[in-house]
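Quick one, tokens below:
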């Protein structure tokens, strides 16, 4: 059975280094690699910081020595673009895919599931979502605040998905697909 693994990126830390949440996703992806033997990996995440390379490119050194193709999607700047570009790559290179594992942080899982099922309803039966630990060091003292912002972004996606905006432009700018969170 042809299985593909998608690893969602995370905006680098202000200093330009890789985010701990992204490291947790990479480690979760390696666990899936050992148990399910996918035929390819898609690492997704574009350049979201001026101090660092694209998220997907930052993850490549952690996958050195893996003997399956690694597709790098480094153009996306939002979660929606991550999903669209990743599925486009999979359809182009592996059209006979039977199972797609999607790795993201557990705090973002509900929103990522909603995005994939909404955008790709016709193939939603292929998706298997794998939550990784957060690694949210800077929110360790205020986890409920971060959870509130993520939940707000989830609702924003559902309320605004048909271009019938219920939020003002300032809200949209701040929660541009919740990537500021």
């Amino acid at each position: 059975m042809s299985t593909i693994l998608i690893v969602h990126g995370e905006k680098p830390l202000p200093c330009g280094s890789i985010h701990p949440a992204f490291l947790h996703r990479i480690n979760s992806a390696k666990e899936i690699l050992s148990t399910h033997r996918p035929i390819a990996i898609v690492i997704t995440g574009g350049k979201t910081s001026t101090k660092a390379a694209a998220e997907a490119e930052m993850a490549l050194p952690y996958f050195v020595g893996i003997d399956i193709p690694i597709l790098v999607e480094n153009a996306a700047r939002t979660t929606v673009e991550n999903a669209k570009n990743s599925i486009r790559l999979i359809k182009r290179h592996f059209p006979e895919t039977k199972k797609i594992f999607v790795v993201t942080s557990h705090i973002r899982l509900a929103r990522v599931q909603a995005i994939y099922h909404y955008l790709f309803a016709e193939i939603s039966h292929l998706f298997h979502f794998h939550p990784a630990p957060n690694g949210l060091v800077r929110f360790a003292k205020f986890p409920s605040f971060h959870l509130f912002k993520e939940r707000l972004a989830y609702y924003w996606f559902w309320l605004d998905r048909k271009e019938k905006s219920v939020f003002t432009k300032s809200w949209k700018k701040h929660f541009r697909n919740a990537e500021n969170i």
